[in-house]
Amino acid sequence: MSQELTKELQAILAKRIMILDGAMGTTIRGYGLTEEDARGSRFRENKEDLLNNGDILSLTRPDVIRDIHKRFYEAGSDICETNTFSGTVLAQSEFFVEDPRKNGGIKDPEFFEKKVLNNHELSDLVRELNIESVKLAKAEAQRVGEQTGQPRYVAGAIGPLTVSLTNVVNPDDTAFRSITFDQVKRTYAHQIDSLIEGGADILMVETIFDSLNAKAALVAIRESGTNLPVIISAAVGRGGETMISAQKVEALWTTFAHIKPLAIGLNCSLGPDLMEPFLRELSKVATTHLSCYPNAGLPNPLAPTGFDLEPQDMHQFLASFADAGLLNLAGGCCGNTPEHIAEIAKAVRGKKPRQVPRLG
Fold first, then answer.
1. CA trace torsion 189, 57, 153, 125 (10° rounding)
2. What is the pLDDT along the chain (360 residues), one digit of tens a residue?
3. What are 231's strand-pairing partners?
4. How many CB atoms sit inside 10 A of residue 30's CB?
5. Domains and CATH numbers, the chain
6. Which of 204, 303, 348, 357 is most buried, taking the most CB atoms under 10 A from its CB?
7. Which helix (H) or strand (E) holds 265?
8. What are the beta bridge partners of residue 153?
């Protein structure tokens, strides 16, 4: 079935530019939720604050998350991501497991093994969070798809984690890492299995800051045995390098080409103006579809969304990307609301998708 889905998506991408969604976190802020909303009755006694844990809203305020998916699909999104950017036991442990550093301890492989990976209560919670998040997106994908006669899809969002396999955390012991590759892979495997169980159509390894973390996620996908289509998306800095592992976009493609992803692309960290030259570099080497969902410019605390660019600005930038033959999938990251996505959808409508280069 998943191989048929891949062919279906490839057929659509050959005809037109598909539309991704926008920023879940930005859009959540528009609902004015409180700490009490985030906790609900279920987590009322939790020791850590939960308001910044947007993923937990899939369990405590599913009405809000489903409404956000509804708004993005109705704005024109073909694909919406699940509310699972931090849907791993590692990321969720920040909210549900006491930080050992508060008592003079450290976060090391032993801590993650005993307190996180073997924490059955946390594992069950994260599994539920992923499954329910998929169901919320699927419900709106089906409703809007039936209403419009155009199928909509759900991408299981797999974020970059709160720990890095590449980054040196102790300058006095540069070989030390707080976690091992195997532990990161197992963390991702748990999320991936849950997203598949929930019924995700696509797996999206996104906002890659550390290529080694992403490699662990992609190994976990391969070992799961799934044939679901995969999208890979990296966040790059002003020099075009992934933020922690400092891998340029050509090297990024070389690293992940063997995965044969449905698409590879760039998202987050930069606005469209700063992202364009690196998107062009990636377009020259990637022999698969290209995705692009930049931030709405640079952070601006005085702007309504916290970012500079308004919907019409994103319209102009993404239209120019399409005219330059750089897009197969287009959307928005931080600062992009359903109103931004509606303009992006208008901007690329009727424009030819990027022609995928073929080897040989």
1. 30
2. 678 999 999 999 999 999 999 999 999 999 999 999 999 999 999 999 999 999 999 999 999 999 999 999 999 999 999 999 999 999 999 999 999 999 999 999 999 999 999 999 999 999 999 999 999 999 999 999 999 999 999 999 999 999 999 988 888 888 899 999 999 999 999 999 999 999 999 999 999 999 999 999 999 999 999 999 999 999 988 887 776 677 789 999 999 999 999 999 999 989 999 999 999 999 999 999 999 999 999 888 888 889 999 999 999 999 999 999 999 999 999 999 999 999 999 999 999 999 998 754
3. 204, 263
4. 14
5. 2-348 (3.20.20.330)
6. 204
7. strand 263-267
8. 79
What's the token pair of residue 249? Answer: 């976009």
**Cβ of 63: how many Cβ atoms within 10 Å?**
11
Q: Where are the alpha helices (DSSP H) in the chain?
A: 2-15, 24-29, 35-39, 57-60, 62-75, 89-96, 109-111, 120-148, 181-198, 211-224, 249-256, 272-285, 311-323, 338-348
Helices 249-256 + 211-224 axis angle, to 10: 20
Run of H or E residues at 210: none
> Scanning the structure block, which residue is given the tokens 């050509």?
250
Amino acid at 326: L
What residues are paired with 234 via a beta bridge? 208, 266
Tokens (6 digits) for 16 = 């037109």
CB 281 within 8 A of CB 274: no
Q: How far is CA 3 from CA 7, 190, 218, in A?
A: 6, 22, 18
φ, ψ of residue 72 to 5 degrees: the values are: -70, -45
C-alpha 76/C-alpha 56 separation (Å) is: 26
| Residue appearing with tokens 């109705």 | 74
Q: Which two tokens stand for residue 184?
A: 């990161």
Residue 243 tokens, joined:
């933020």
Instruction: State how far Cα 122 lies from the chain centre.
Output: 21
- Does the pTM exceed 0.85? yes
Token duo for residue 216: 């662990």
Tell me the C-alpha distance between 117 and 183, whole Å.
8
Rounded Cα distance between 54 and 57, Å, is 6
